[in-house]
Amino acid sequence: MKISTKGIYALEAMIELASRNTACVSIRDIAAARNCSVKYLEQIFKQLKKAQLLISIRGKDGGYQIIQSLYAIGSGGLLGLGLGKSRQKFLYVPEPENDFVFPIVAEELGFIGAVVVLLLFSLLIMRGYWLALHARDKFGALTIVGIITLLAVQVFLNVGVVTNLIPNTGISLPFFSYGGTALMIQLAEMGIVLSISRQIPAPKND
Q1: pLDDT, mean over the chain
Q2: Nearest 5 degrees, angle CA 32-CA 38-CA 43?
Q3: Cα(118)–Cα(173) distance, integer angstroms
Q4: Which letter does DSSP use for residue 82 in this model?
Q5: pLDDT class for 57, splitting at 50, 70, 90?
Q6: What does the angle CA 108 – CA 113 – CA 114 come to, to the nearest 5 degrees?
Q7: CB atoms within 10 A of CB 17
Q8: pTM of the full predicted structure?
């Protein structure tokens, strides 16, 4: 689909007017802002609707980030496109290395790879609570519960956002999202959990 420079200016005017005013922006307002004919703009909007690119600017019916995220998850299919072969991470999905890294994982590794990642998180969380139940003292138990609950909530919020289950919260995915400081803190938390787990007495063999 080809859009002229005047059409691009018209779309920019639509975004600008929508950001300034909460009321519905009419095609006549856009045409007046960019000196275009109403008929010409109607043709452009029809083409955009056919291409499924005309989405809600204010996020009432979805948003650009969520749309591109779902495209990435869906295009991965069952087995994925291959490690490092994602297409949506190239100027389509915003923050593909940070908040929206899970859709890229799903696109490259497919549905099976995404399920494996979620299963690994689930095993880590369940194992953490098991360690909390068998901790040597109450302080160790509460420490593990706090760390694992923080991890579980963070994973739920991130995956919920990228799958359009909940509104965008800007929460990164533990151990996957970009950020050296966050990774160091998360590894330190896992080190604390492992340190407490080593104090759990081993079961006696009769």
Answers
A1: 80
A2: 135
A3: 11
A4: -
A5: very low
A6: 90
A7: 17
A8: 0.67
Is there a contact between 107 and 88 (Cβ–Cβ < 8 Å)? yes
Q: Tokens representing 65?
A: 């980030």
Q: What is the DSSP string of 89-151?
A: TTTTSSSTTTTTHHHHHHHHHHHHHHHHHHHHHHHHHHHHHHHHHT-SSHHHHHHHHHHHHHH
Residue at 119: amino acid letter: L
Find the helix packing angle between 5-20 and 38-50, rounded to 10°: 90
Q: Which two tokens stand for residue 183?
A: 């990774």
Q: Kindly report, residue by residue over 74-130, the tens digit of the pLDDT.
A: 989 999 999 888 888 887 888 888 889 999 999 999 999 999 999 999 999 999 999
Q: Which residues contact 142 (CB under 8 A, 6 or more apart)?
A: 132
- Structure token pair of residue 45: 């909007």
